[in-house]
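step=predict obj=Type II secretion system protein GspG C-terminal domain-containing protein n=167
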Amino acid sequence: MFTRSERGFTLIELLVVIAIIGILSSVVLASLNSARKKGRDARRVSDVKQIQLALELYYDNNSSEYPDSVCTAVSGGQCTASLIAPQYISVAPNDPQANSTTWLYFYDNLTSAEPPTTCATATGVCTSYVLGATLEDTANSALNQDIDGSAVGGTINCADPVYCVRP
């Protein structure tokens, strides 16, 4: 009598293993996408803080007044020429999603009155500002510790998901 000593995997066993690998890879990709959003939001918050520092340097160097605009020229929703770069910040930061026009940095100079209102350096003394960026991950409470939107004034609505700062 002849016995077969060949051993191998059946088709069902191979399909089960492939299905398990597919499920695990989809879970990993979903987690990776969430981490990418958080990473882009962290960069936005960091960029806002860098722009805020550059604005403070501008303020100290320009008769204690903030500029009307951070950008002197805008192309495709991005700063192409900036009042604060390269003198106060090496490069004006662009949003991490370069192809998107939804996630932009916002700036408006304000008066010191309460509530603050939009200001023009030609007609008034602009001693305050509001600076913000739209976040993707609205559930990230660590990044949403910014100013309250009701106390802002100007043209920017700082309600979540917009991260906003003032001096």
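step=describe
The chain has one domain: 12-165.
step=end
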